[in-house]
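So, can you check what follows?
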Amino acid sequence: MTLCGHLARLGISFRSSCAVIALMVAGSSLSQASAAEFNGPSFRKGMWHFVRTLELVVSSRNRHQLFEREMTRCVDPTEAMKVTFSSASVGDCRSAKPERANNEYTFSNRCDYMGPVRTVITVQSDEAYTEVNELTVGNLPRTDSVVARRIGDCQDSTEISRQSSAQPIQN
C-alpha cells in the first residue's frame, strides 16, 4: 500500500498530512534554559554535519521515510541541548526529567513541537551524538532521528552559508 493510500485509509486528507508534516519539521522550541540548571551532555562548538530523517511508522516492520535532510552549520550543540533538557509543559503534556544510563539520556515523555515524545539521546563523544524522537500517539506514529557529527572548526560566514543545504530527498 502506498503512503497516500495508507493516509487515506486512516481518513487523513493530503492537506492535513502536509500540515502535520510541516508542524513536525518546523521544530522551534518554546523554552529557554539557564546554564546553572543544565545537567546534560556537552559538545565542542564548530562545524557540524546533521542528517535528519522523518519516518511514518505503519507497523513494527513497516516504515515509510517521509524525508531526509542534511545540513552543515557552525553551531554549539550544547546550547541546543540546554533547550531540549529544559522542555516546558505544553498544554496537558508534562515533560519527564531525563534518565541517564552510561552515554544515553532518555526522556520517557518530552513535550515539544511534535507533542508528547519519547526521546533518546546517545552521546558517542563531544563530537558526535544521535537523537531519536518517537511519537506514538494519534493516527500518525512517527520517528524523527538526527545523526550529528562535528567535522571541523568554523570558517568565515560566507563559506559556511555555501556549505549549508536543506534539500529533501525524494523517494
